[in-house]
Amino acid sequence: MPDPQLNHESPVADVPLRRSRWRRWRRWLLALPLLFAAGSALQVLVLRFVDPPFSAFMVTRQLDAWGDGQWAFHPRYAWRDFDRIAPALPLSMIAAEDQRFATHSGFDLQAIEKARAHNERGGRLRGASTISQQVSKNLFLWSGRSYVRKGIEAWYTVLIELFWPKQRILEVYANIAEFGDGIYGAQAASQAFWGIDASRLSGDQAARLAAVLPAPGRYSASRPGPYVQRRAAWIQRQVRQLGGTAYLDELE
Hints:
By secondary structure, the protein is mostly helical. 59% of the residues lie in helices and 3% in strands.
C-alpha cells in the first residue's frame, strides 16, 4: 500500500519556500520608494525642457465632467512660451500669491507660520502655498488634503526647485493655472474672456486673472464682482511695489 505521506508536501519543507517568497516581496516593497524617487525625478527633469501637454487637474476635471454626463466638455488649453505672455500676468500672479517667490526654495516659512497662527485663531482657513507648490499640485497630483498627498506635493516641490529655474516654474504655472471652469493657462483665458492673445493682456486684465485664482469656479475675470475688482486693484499696487518688469529680469 502506498504511503499517504508521499502524496502531500511536508509542512516543514514548505517553510523555506514561503520565506523565499516573502524575501522577494520585501525586496520589491523596499525598492518601491527608490523607484518612485527616480521616476519622479526623471519626470520633473524632462518637463524642464518639454512643455506639458496636460496637467493632472485637467485630467481630473475631464473625468468629473464625464462622470456628470457632460460628454461634450473638453478643457481649454493652449501653451504659450514665457516671452509670448504679457509680463503683467506673471507679475500679477507673484503679487497675488507668492511675493517671496524669487528668494524662497519652494516653501515660504514665514507665510506658513502666519497661516498656522491665523488658523489657530479660527475663522476662514488660510493657506500658504507657494507658486512652486501650486505647480507641483496642479501638474502632478490629485486634489485633496490627505497627509500622503501633501507629502508627495512637498517632494515634487523640492524636485521642481532643484531642476527648474524660477522663470520655468513661473512659465509652467501661467500655462496650467485654472482661470475659469475648464479654462487653463494664459492663452486659453485671454481668448475665452477677451478674444485676444496672451501677449496683449493689459495690467488690469492680468490682475483680474490673478484675482480669481483662489476660486476660479466662483469668481469671474471677465465679469468681475466687487471682490475681484478690489483684489485686482490691490494686486496692481503690489506689482508696482515689486518693481514691475525689472522683477522678472531678476529671475533669468
